[in-house]
Design a protein that fits this description.
The chain has 337 residues and is α/β, with parallel strands linked by helices. Helix content is 52%, strand content 8%. It has 14 helices and seven strands. The strands form two sheets. The chain has a five-stranded mixed β-sheet with strand order 1-3-2-5-4. The protein is elongated, with a radius of gyration of 30 Å.
Length: 337
């Protein structure tokens, strides 16, 4: 190596720096393709890194064909960049994996998965799969995790990531550069994800309308059971004039229509569901009344007192029911095949 190249080599930081473990000094250096040297221990790597173990088992050449050294230690040059090589080393030093900044290292996980297979690192792929479903990654980078899972054929990870994408803003195909892993997958994978989102949208709308209709009195019941929610109560239940549910004639007979303010609120929620498919977020919106709705109920003391509590209950029911339907939807679709 030329002097200029040697000067550009950097040592890795903790826990793979030259002085990271002074009680157990390193006995091997691994150099990445971007010229970062990792100081490691042969015995520790040999326990899991089968390829490296077999390579180190060969007698070291001497003379002009001798392997390069640095600081008196053998030097092995690998084709992986430092972000990938560090992840491979963490696979062999499991105690260093605790508390890692996986979000920062996400860019190396896809290549590390391939390298773990190439180098026959025992348990390496399984550990990376566990990292990919870390709640921190699924919450902040579900689209990137989804892309990695599809690229590597990890259907169970893809399903978890697809569910997590429901809590994020809808994917905009025009900004694929912000998700570099999308370059490794096909339009088929993205199409499957879009189909899943459309199904969840339909399920969320259906659940919202179902729960909105729940609690209406059975007009054909002999007992004529009273309604259990505010927006199905008639004026006679303590509402001011013009508030409450109303009857109107339909071709099939009398039809009870929910309170006007609730129909206005429901229409706004339905429009929101088309854009946002997060059942938890929609549940919160169910209990949040817009200024027009607040104005509509402001003159009715009964609605002012009970509307929020009744809507919170409805929101919780929507979230539970919708999530159950989402689980069915994700089980019925395949993303990686």
């Amino acid at each position: 190596m030329s002097q200029t190249a040697a000067d550009s080599v950097a040592n890795a930081g903790h826990p793979f720096s030259p002085t990271s473990d002074e009680q157990n000094p390193p006995d091997l250096i691994l150099r990445s393709s971007d010229l970062v040297d990792f100081y490691v221990h042969k015995d520790m790597l040999s326990f899991r890194w089968t390829f490296l173990k077999n390579m180190l088992a060969f007698p070291e050449p001497r003379g002009e064909s001798a392997n390069p050294t640095k600081d008196g230690l053998p030097l092995v040059i690998l084709p992986e960049p430092s972000v990938v090589l560090e992840l491979l080393l963490v696979l062999c030093y499991p105690r260093f994996g605790v508390g890692r900044n996986l979000i920062r290292e996400l860019g190396g996980l896809d290549a590390a998965y391939e390298a773990a297979e190439k180098y026959d690192i025992s348990g390496g792929k399984e550990l990376i799969e566990a990292w990919l479903v870390d709640p921190r990654l699924l919450q902040t980078e579900p689209y990137r995790v989804f892309a990695i899972a599809c690229h590597r054929g990890l259907e169970h990870v893809a399903k978890l990531a697809a569910m997590a994408t429901l809590t994020r803003p809808p994917f905009d195909p025009s900004v694929t550069d912000s998700i570099p892993e999308f370059k490794a997958i096909t339009a088929h994978h993205l199409c499957r994800l879009q189909i899943f989102h459309h199904r969840c949208c339909d399920m969320l709308l259906w659940t919202l309308r179902e729960r909105a209709a729940a609690g209406a009195p059975d007009l054909f019941s002999p007992e004529n059971d009273p309604c259990s929610v505010l927006w199905w109560e008639e004026e006679s239940r303590g509402h001011v004039a013009g508030c409450g549910a109303k009857f109107h004639e339909d071709e099939g007979g009398p039809l009870l229509e929910s309170a006007a303010w609730f129909r206005l609120h429901l229409h706004s929620l339905e429009e929101t569901c088309v854009i946002h498919h997060d059942s938890g977020w929609i549940a919160q919106k169910v209990a949040e009344l817009s200024p027009p709705v607040l104005m509509a109920i402001s003159k009715c003391p009964r609605c002012v007192e009970y509307a929020t509590n009744h809507l919170k209950t409805m929101g919780m029911e929507v979230e539970v029911k919708a999530n159950q339907k989402f689980q069915v939807a994700v089980a019925q679709i395949s993303f990686t095949v």
